[in-house]
Every structure is written in structure tokens, then in C-alpha cells.
Amino acid sequence: MVQVQETVETDITFVISDINNRVRTLENRYNLFGERLLVVNQNMIEEYKKLTKEMRLINDDLKEMKQDMFKVRDVITNVVKEMEGFAKRDQIKVLEKYIDLWSPLNLVTRTEVRKLIVEEMTNKKLSVKRGNK
């Protein structure tokens, strides 16, 4: 019976030792998982901060682009309003016909008319004098 008791004690010691080793292994794994979880959490926090900063920059750029679009829309609206005041093609054709009819290049100035009158009067005087002679 002593031998049985020794074997039982040996088996119990072996089992306790095995359980002790397994508990240490599990504790080490638990500690490793805890450290990994901490690193993952820190990385996630850093990435969240980066993403938040980038989102703010993107939102600022988007606001600026919207303002630029509104300015461009206003400028285009003003240009369209200005263009509405321009003469249409058919109106230009009518003006062109009137200009051709009046022939502004053939018009004379007052001084030219006076000069022509003076010349004509001197020509008549000369012709009258020649006719009398």
C-alpha cells in the first residue's frame, strides 16, 4: 500500500505540476494578448486621429470648392446678363444695310461743303467773265 500511496502521490504531483505549467502558459498567453490588444488599440486611436484630421481637411477643401462654384456661377450669370444686352445677328444685318444705304464714307464735312461752294462760285464767276469777254 505504501507503493500505491507513492504512485498516487507521484501522480498527484505530476498532475499538479502539469496544471501549474498549463496555468503559467495560459497566463503568458493572456499577457501577450493583453499587450497585443493594447498595441492594436493605440494603433486604432492613431488612425482615428489621422482620419479625423484628413476628414477636416477634406471638408475645408469641399467648403472652399463650393464657395468657388458659387462665385463661378455668379460670374457666369453676370456674363449671360451682359450677353443678353448684345445686338442679335439680325439686328446687326439691319444696321449694316442702313450704313450701306447712307454710305458714311461718301459724306462730306461742313468745311468741305463750304470749299465746294466757294469753288463752284468761283467757277461760275470765271465762266461768266469769260462769257462776257
Q: Please, could you describe this protein's structure?
A:
This protein has 133 residues and is mainly α. The chain has two domains: 1-86; 88-133, no CATH class. 90% of the residues lie in helices and 0% in strands. The protein is built from three helices and no strands. It has helices at 2-84, 89-102, 110-132. The protein is rod-shaped.
Gist?
This protein has 133 residues and is mainly alpha-helical.
Feature tags:
mainly alpha; 3 helices; 2 domains; 133 residues; single chain
Structural class: mainly alpha
Q: What is the CA-CA span between the terminal residues?
A: 186 Å
Q: What is the H/E order?
A: HHH
What level of helicity do the residues show? Answer: over 70%
| Total DSSP E strands | 0
Detail the topology: elements first, then pairings:
Elements: H1 2-84, H2 89-102, H3 110-132
